[in-house]
Amino acid sequence: IPVSVTGCGLVGGVAVTAVAGIPLSQPARVDCTTAKALKRWVEEGVIPAIGRRGGGLARLNVVASYDCRPRNNVAGARVSEHGAGHAIDVAGFTLADGSTLTVLRDWSAESKLMRAIHASACGPFGTVLGPKADVYHRDHFHVDTARYRSGPYCR
User: Fold this and answer.
1) 14-154, which class in CATH?
2) How far apart are CA 32 and CA 11, in angstroms?
3) 132 near 153, Cβ under 8 Å?
4) End-to-end CA distance of the chain
């Protein structure tokens, strides 16, 4: 996806519609490294954390992936990792029985489960942001594959 904005564009990207047999609510347009990290997180973190609750995980509720925009949609900010196809925003998880766990509603009500899901993204992803990070992430988990010398940045 070529874009005229410096810092944006996605070369060799994929449209991920499911990972580990779990469908996404909308295709996530990301690079291959991010797609692999998403698969690892779902297989090693999300599915085990949810377990058999509600019949198990049935869908990831994705609200954003590739999008050429500044961080947090703040004018003048650096380009977000979304602008390079390195990030996915997940707002919740639909279970087999039709019930849904959302970051906004269940972060505190289901704190142990939601915090386990959040923590399990640290490692597969270089940046993991959730409700404790800032007001911009109160309703979703932002995960991206940016890497830092000091290790993953997880808040």
Assistant:
1) alpha beta
2) 10
3) no
4) 30
**Residues contacting residue 75 through CB under 8 Å, at least 6 positions apart:** none
Q: Return the beta strands (E) in the chain as ranges.
A: 14-19, 22-30, 57-64, 87-95, 100-102, 127-129, 141-144, 153-154
H or E segment at 49?
Answer: helix 47-50
pLDDT, tens only, 129-140? 999 999 999 999
- Look-up: residue for tokens 């909308």? 26
pLDDT digits (tens, 9 = 90+) for 42-95: 999 999 999 999 999 999 999 999 998 878 877 777 888 999 999 999 999 999
Question: pTM here?
Answer: 0.92
Measure the CA–CA gap between 76 and 93, rounded to whole angstroms.
Answer: 33
A 10 A CB-CB count for 21 gives: 9
Contact between residue 110 and residue 51 where contact means Cβ atoms under 8 Å apart: no
Identity of the amino acid at 17 = T
Which residues on adjacent β-strands are paired with residue 36? none
